[in-house]
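User: Could you go from structure to sequence for me? I need the amino acid at each position, not a summary. Structure tokens:
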């Protein structure tokens, strides 16, 4: 990774950590709910979705005041963290390790983890009402997040994923699953950054092409890391997909073809940015990071 991108990503992560801490401070409430939410949120995730949001805003306007983007980026991380807490539940993937620590339901209780996920999801939408944008833009942001995460987006993808356990999917079905469970929220992350920076329809269409492509690549790489990663680096149990008989790009295509697919998607994502100049450098670097990452 280039030093320039490493620095940009570090700065975005620092912004997001302090924004999340500010909007979900610890209090002396009598339950474990807030502690479980903070445990699942402030624990060293890669913050790829917020970084995409900042990078998309900068692609549209390199002089964007990133303070305006902070609540939008934080909303995406809250939504994503909720999806991970629920994804790990015994009724779903039944995983014990997340971001190098016991999963939320292991560290707390299953009921607390369900409620922490619920709380993170609603906090995400609340954050979108705390921006300084016009009402029209705020409603657009809320709609993007609802679509990306709901019954037309991530939640549908998760339902397809669970229905596919022990079943053989063909490549087209696998792609539909990945585009929903992971791609949809990544598309929302890019669109929301761009909308916040005042993107026009043409710019939004080009960025959506980029985001859909890199969103699919993100899950292809996640599938690859389940096989090639080690538990300490990926912060979750290596081999969990195989153990649970999940259809993945690797189980369907094999490792080499899955890698080739990720490379092809990387190239396509860069192609989608041809109409952008220097301002899209962070988005280009993110595309490389997404397929080269080791965790
Ligand atoms: C993991 O997401 C779940 C998928 C959608 C593949 P990330 O790989 O972004 O996980 P964190 O946020 O860095 O922990
Ligand atoms: C997760 O997909 C997609 C989500 C919406 C959270 P995975 O089940 O492959 O994610 P990991 O591998 O547990 O992080
Ligand atoms: Mg899953
Ligand atoms: Mg999982
Ligand atoms: Mg996975």
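Assistant: Here is the amino acid at each position, in order:
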């Amino acid at each position: 990774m280039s030093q320039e991108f490493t620095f940009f990503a570090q700065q975005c992560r620092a912004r997001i950590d302090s924004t999340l801490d500010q909007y979900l401070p610890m209090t002396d409430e009598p339950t474990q709910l807030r502690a479980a939410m903070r445990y699942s949120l402030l624990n060293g995730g890669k913050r790829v979705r917020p970084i995409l949001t900042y990078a998309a805003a900068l692609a549209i306007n390199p002089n964007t005041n990133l303070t305006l983007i902070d609540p939008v980026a934080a909303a995406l991380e809250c939504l994503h963290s909720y999806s991970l807490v629920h994804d790990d539940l015994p009724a779903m993937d039944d995983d014990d390790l997340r971001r190098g620590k016991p999963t939320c339901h292991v560290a707390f209780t299953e009921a607390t983890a369900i409620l922490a996920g619920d709380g993170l999801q609603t906090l995400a939408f609340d954050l979108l009402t705390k921006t300084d944008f016009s009402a029209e833009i705020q409603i657009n942001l809320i709609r993007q997040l609802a679509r990306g995460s709901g019954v037309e987006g991530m939640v549908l993808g998760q339902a397809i994923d669970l229905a596919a356990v022990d079943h053989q999917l063909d490549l087209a079905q696998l792609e539909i699953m990945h585009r929903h469970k992971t791609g949809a929220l990544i598309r929302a992350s890019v669109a929301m950054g761009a909308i916040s920076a005042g993107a026009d329809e043409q710019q939004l269409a080009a960025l959506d092409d980029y985001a859909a492509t890199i969103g699919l690549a993100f899950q292809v790489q996640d599938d690859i890391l389940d096989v090639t990663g080690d538990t300490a680096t990926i912060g979750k149990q290596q081999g969990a997909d195989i153990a649970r008989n999940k259809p993945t790009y690797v189980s369907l295509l094999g490792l080499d073809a899955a890698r080739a697919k990720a490379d092809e998607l990387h190239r396509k994502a860069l192609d989608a940015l041809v109409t952008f100049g220097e301002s899209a450098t962070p988005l280009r670097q993110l595309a490389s990071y997404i397929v080269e990452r080791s965790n």
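One structural detail worth keeping in mind: Residues 147 and 153 are 6 Å apart (CA to CA).
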